Fold this sequence. Notes:
The structure holds three protein chains of three kinds.
Chain A: H1 9-52, H2 58-62, H3 75-106, H4 111-124, H5 128-142, H6 149-173, H7 177-185, H8 190-219, H9 222-226, H10 260-268, H11 273-307
Helix pairs in contact in A: 1-11, 3-6, 3-8, 3-10, 4-6, 5-6, 6-8, 7-8, 8-11, 10-11
Chain B: E1 9-20, E2 23-34, E3 38-42, H1 49-55, E4 66-74, E5 79-80, H2 88-94, E6 95-98, H3 109-119, H4 125-138, H5 142-145, H6 158-170, E7 176-180, H7 188-201, E8 206-210, H8 214-220, E9 223-228, E10 231-237, H9 238-243, H10 248-254
Helix pairs in contact in B: 3-4, 3-6, 4-6, 6-7
Chain C: H1 2-48, H2 51-56, H3 72-103, H4 106-121, H5 124-142, H6 152-175, H7 179-186, H8 192-203, H9 205-221, H10 224-229, H11 247-256, H12 264-297
Amino acid sequence: MSHAKTPNVVEMRKRIALNKTRDYIFWVIGLLSTLIGFVLLFTMIIDLFIDGFPRLSGQFLLSYPSRFPEKAGILSAWVGTTLVMIVTAATAVPLGIGAGIYLEEYRRKNWLTHLIEINMNNLAGVPSIIYGLLALGVFVYFLKFGESILTGGLTLGLLILPMVVIATRESIRAIPNSIREASYALGATKWQTIKDHILPYSSGGILTGMIIGLSRAIGETAPIITVGALTFIAFLPSSPITPEFPFLSFKWLLDPFTVMPIQMFNWISRPQKGFHVNAAAAGVILLFMTLLMNAFAIYMRYKFRKRIKW
Amino acid sequence: MVTQISEGLKAEVKDLNFYYTHHQALKNIHLQIAEKKITALIGPSGCGKTTYLRCFNRMHDLYPGNRYEGEIILFPDQLNIISPKIDPIEVRMRISMVFQKPNPFPKTVFENVAYGLRVRGESRRSLVEDKVEKALKQAALWEEVKDRVQDLAFNLSGGQQQRLCIARALATDPEILLFDEPTSALDPTATSKIEELIMQLKKEVTIIIVTHNMQQAARVSDYTAFMYLGEIIEFDKTDKVFTHPSKKLTEDYITGRFG
Amino acid sequence: MFLKRKISKKIKEGAVEWLLLFSALSSIFITLGIVFILFYEALSFFKDVSLWEFLTGRQWTPLFAQPKFGILPLVTGTLLVTGIAVLVSLPIGLIVAVYLSEYAPFKVKEVAKPFLELLAAVPTVVYGYFALLFLTPILQKWIPHLSGFNALSPGIVMGIMIIPYVSSVSEDSMKAVPMHIREGSYAMGATKFQTAFKVIIPAAFSGIAAAFIIGISRAIGETMVVAIAAGMMPNLTLNPIEPVQTLTAYIVGVSLGDVPHGTTEYKTIFAAGMTLFLMTLFLNILGFWFRKRIREVY
C-alpha cells in the first residue's frame, strides 16, 4: 500500500462536503416529514374549531337532534356514548386483564398458548368493520340483543380487547422475577402472588392501556353503524337508577342508541351547510375527549416510567 | 516522564484529556506513535485504553456530552485530529478501526469490503473490484471467500468475520489502523491467525492495538504503553516493558499481581 | 383445619386458572366467530349468486331492480384509495422513522413520539370530515375536474393518518440494530445519511417490511374516511379524481339503510366483508412472518 506521503486531503474534503450536504438535506426532509403529522393535527383542530365555534354552547350539549341545525344537539349522542363505554369497559377490562395474566403468568409452552398468541396478534390487525359484521350476526340476530346499547358496547369491547391484553402483558412483563420469587418464598400461592403483587405493581400500565383502548372505542364509528345504531334518536335510554327498590335498572342495556361519532357522521352527510357546523362542533368535542384521554395516558406512562426503577 | 522514540512518527499525543460529561476518563496523556510499527495499549479493564483508542478516530463524537482537551497530531501534515475544527468524518476516513466484536454489515462479503469506497463515492466498478480483492488478500481471507463474495457476511465464521472487518478497514488505504481487543471474541485458532495478520500488516500501515492479553501485546507489538486509571504509567519498547519495567506498578501488572 | 384450608386453597387456585384460561380463550372464540359468521352468510350468498359472477362481474349494483354482483369495482376502489394512502404513508413513515431513530436528539423524540401517537388516536370520522370539507375544496382549486367525492382526498388524509403505524414499527426495528453495527459504519467515515440508508435500513429490513404491511392492511380496512369523502358509488376505475366505493364503505352504506335480515342484500355485506377479511388476513400473516424474521437476525 504505497500511498503518497501526504494523502489527497483536498479531494477527500470535497467528498465529505458533498456527503454532508446530502446528510443535511435529509435532516431537513426528516424534520419536515415528522412535522407533517403535527401540521395536519393542528390544522384539523383549528379547522374544526373555526367551523364549529358558532354551535359550541351548553344548549348544544343538552338538545336532541333536530331537523333544524340551529336547534339540534348531541344530548342523546353523548349519553349513548357514555352508556356504551360502560358496557365496553365491563367487557374488555376483565377479559383483557384475565387473558394478559394467563398468557404471562400461567402460560405453559404448548400449542394452545402459542395459538392464542398468534391469534391475538392477528385480531389486532382485523379491520374494525369486521367486528361490526361479527356483532351483527352474533349479538343482533343470534343472541337477539337487537340494535341495542348492549350490542354496541360488546362489539367495541371485543374490538379493544387485544389492546388491553397487550398493555397488560407488557406491564406484567416489566416486573422482575425476583418479586415473584420473594412472594413464593413467603409461602404465597400463585393467585395470591398475582393478586397482592403482580396486579398492583402493573396497574399503572394496565390503566394506561385501558384508557387508550377506551379512547379508540369512543371514536369508532364503522362497527357501530354496522350493528345498526340509529342516526336520529330524540329520546334517552331508560334510566339506570330507579326511584323504587332495587334502585338499579338494566333496561337501558336493550334500548336503541346513537353515539357521538355516528351523530357527527350523520351531520356530515347532510347537504345543508348548517349541519356541517353541527358536525364540526360535535367533532371538536369528540376530538377533545379522545385527545384528553390519550394525553392523560401518555402522561401516566411517562410518570410510571420515571417512578419505578426495578 | 514518557520515553521519546527516535523513529519516524505517525502521530503524537500531547497533553490529552478526555471527559465523559463530568467524569474525566483520560488524564494528561502524552504518547508518540511510530510509523509502520505496532503500538499496544495494555492495562486492567476500565483503565481507559479503549477510551483512548477511540479518540484516534473521534468515535466519541457520536455521543453527546463527550469532550476532548489537548492535541493528537497526525503526521505528515501535522493535523490536530481532535480539534473541533476538523471534521470527525475526515479523521475516520484516514484512520480506520476494527472492533472488539466482529461487526460486519448485513450485506454481502463484497459489499462489506467495498463499503468504505462507496462512502467515498467511488463508483468505478473495476477499481472497486480490484480494491476489494486486494483488501481481502491483505486480510488473508481471499482464498477462503473468493468463491462466495456474494454470500451474506453473516454466514462466515467468527474469525472470518473479524478478518472481513479488517479487510473492510484496509480497503480504503488508512494511515492508521486501530484494533480494539480484536480477538477477545474469538477462539485460539482464529486468534493466532489474526495476530499473524496484524504482524504482516505493519509493513504497510501504522497500527495501534488495545488488548487485555499481555502475551498478545508481547507477541505482536513494537511499543507498549501501560495504562492505569486513565493515565499512561509506562511507555517504551515492548521488550523493555516486559523484561525491565521501570515502574513498580507495571511490574505488578505484567507479573499478574493485579488486573 | 389446616388440611381443609389447604384443600379450599387448591380449589380456588384451580378455579382462578380456569377463569383466566377462559379469558385468554375468548380471543379464539372471537376469531372463530368472525370466520363462522362471514363464511356462513357468504356461503348462503353464493347460493344466490355464482362465485364466477362475484369474482369477474364488472358491476356492483345489488340494490337495483336488476342487481349485479361483481365485486371488482369495490376491490379496485379499495386498492385505489389504499394505493394513494400507501404512496403517502410509506415513504414519509420511513423517513420519519429514520429521522427519529438516527437523527433526532433525545428531547425531540420525547415530544415527537407521543404526538405521533395522538395522530393515531383521532377518531376517523374527524379525518373524514377534514378530507371532505377541508382538503377536497382545496384540491379542487388545483385540479379543476376533481369531483366533490373522490379517491384522492381521502387517500391522502388516510396516508397521513397511517404514518404513525408505519413509523413506529419501522423505528423500533431500526433501534434494534445493535450499536456496534452503526459504529462500524461511522468508523469508515460514513455520514448519518449513509449509515441509515446503506446499513441500518438493510439491517432492519424485516421490521420495515412488517411496518409497511401493517400500514397497507390499515389502509385497506379503514372505513369512515372513505365512507365520508370518497363517495358511495361503485365505480370500476383507477382514476383518483373520480368518486369510488371501497369494500368497507359499501358495508357502511348498506348498514345505514334498512336491510332486512336474510335477504340477498343483507348477505352482500358479508360477502364484501369476507373479501376484506381475506385480504387483510393475507397481509397479517405476511407481516407476522416478517416480524418473526426480525428476531432471528440478531
